[in-house]
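User: I'm curious whether this sequence folds into something compact or stays loose and floppy. Could you predict its structure so I can see for myself?
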Amino acid sequence: MRVALMVEGQEGVTWPQWVDLALACEEHGLEGLLRSDHYLSFDNPEERGSLDAWATISALASRTTRLRLGTLVSPATFRHPAELAALVVTADHASSGRVELGMGAGWFEPEHVAFGFPFPAARDRFERLEEQVEIVHRLWGRDEDSVTFHGRHYRIEACRALPKPLQEPHPPLILGGSAGARATRLAARYADEYNLNFVDPSECARRRDRLLSAVEEEGRDPAEFRMSLMTGFVMGGDESDLE
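Assistant: Here's the prediction. I'll summarize afterward.
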């Protein structure tokens, strides 16, 4: 089992706290430190804020030596896919190949309103995610000298996107959610990992079986497809502290 820490960075996590968290993860043997990619606090937007996710990751790369770093997840509504691909490649070089990218459709409407990000209907957001995943995957790739893409939401022309990532073939790409039919098809084609959120073991098994069957149908090896679970925990020095 591989264990990483995921932190909701939009709840006022300061730069010194990020450094302490990263160094503690390294000291105590955790594999990775991942963070949400949000700008607006869920609980107290009047007093809490967020450092930018990818700027934080790139900066932490210079303070760590082995810890893997990444997002769960970067919304498709925040950035153009060519920009996102370049941000991740920059962090990949800064970390000597220790970053991972989680991608999602975006969901927190008040944040989009506050910061001026478009927030279209769910179907449209998922279409944007589908196009973004393909574009990022191709821009990271080494099979094409340049990438041209004409979609409904994005258009790029003969983009060479250099330099390429340090990781071979590319930084791990993480998708997640409830493993519905459309999301499962997208993950089976492009993702290296699928992340499940706050579900019990039996539901994990059902979604895993559905995903691995789809991966195999894509001609990929299910044994190389990673599954992960994001879940919460509480800690205390003794039982009363825990309660």
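Summary: The first strand starts at residue 4 and ends at 7. The chain has a mean pLDDT of 97.
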